[in-house]
Every structure is written in C-alpha cells, then in structure tokens.
Amino acid sequence: VRLAVAGAFHTSFMEPAVSRLEAALLSTDIRTPRIPVISNVNAQPHTDPDTIKKILARQVRLVILVSIQLNYSKT
C-alpha cells in the first residue's frame, strides 16, 4: 500500500539519520521509566535507559511493529 508521507521513514534511506540521532541521544538524559517503554521495533518492554536510546535511534530505519506493540500494550 502506497502512503502519501513526507519522507522515507522506516526504510534504508533513513540510515544516515540513525547515527545522527544516536549522537544526539548520547547527550540526552533518559531516566529509568516507572512504566516500561514498549518498543515499536521489537514490541518488547524496556526499562534500561541505554537500551531505550538505542531503540529510539533504530526505529527511524527499521520497520515498526505497531499492531504487535498495541497488542502487547493491551495485556
């Protein structure tokens, strides 16, 4: 299904943005969340701030698992 979007998000065309986002996240303070962050990259809960940073950067380039993530969140 073709979607009218502003960019090639979640594709290999976003690879250059991953390293830039990783660099920006290095100087960002992310604290351990009280509620786990459900990743849309692997649809799993995460509480480790370093892992959350890595996943945030990866989601720019990878296919996201929204339906699985939402199903996990319902449980």
TrEMBL record:
Record-linked InterPro entries: Ac_transferase_dom_sf, Acyl_Trfase/lysoPLipase, Mitochondrial_malonyltrans
Superkingdom of the organism of origin: Eukaryota
Any one GO MF annotation of this record: transferase activity
Name recorded for this polypeptide: Malonyl-CoA-acyl carrier protein transacylase mitochondrial-like
